[in-house]
Amino acid sequence: xxxxxxxxxxxxxxxxxxxxxxxxxxxxxxDKPQDRSLWTIERYVEEVETVRTALGLGQVHLLGHSWGGWxxxxxxxxxxxxxxxxxxxxxxxxxxxxxxxxxxxxxVLGSETVKMMLRHExxxxxxxxxxxxxxxxxxxxxxCRLDDWPxxxxxxxxxxxxxxxxxxxxxxEFLYVGNLKDWNRLADMHRITCPTLITVGMHDExxx
Length: 208
Fold this sequence. Notes:
CATH class: Alpha Beta
Largest sheet: 3 strands, parallel
Number of strands: 3
Strand order of the largest sheet: 1-2-3
């Protein structure tokens, strides 16, 4: 859901920009079909292009955050002619590299905790309190470090569709086993021809 992005970027409208944020298929106020074949990055690229075309937009400034960054990279490679600029926030272009970084972050919790997490992942007991406690700690350190998460973020998380998330990414932010686990577009980055800004947080789980 795009609530957490719509509100902080809405002031851009006061500067004369048209700001478009939409709930993708499978989340928020959009339909939530059960067809797992729909949950591919290629289909979501075409969804972005459909929205751009339907609104009669020419070249656009495209911002992609987290998963949206992967989508932005894929869109920029597929439709470079439609981008004026590309902004990639808290994302990466190489999933195997990201998985290695996530394992490094997990390792900071200590060898016994890592063994415990691997055991629950192997046994499929991810709802066990000790596993959830480790994920909660990692989320506080590397997802959002605020004690009280902003209301737009809470609303978006409350409307999360775990079916899509699980199929494409995995069961949580620190275990990537979905259909994107081998995604890597570094070799094709040269096909993105517009000016591109990449931002990343100091404690970010998603290194560039």
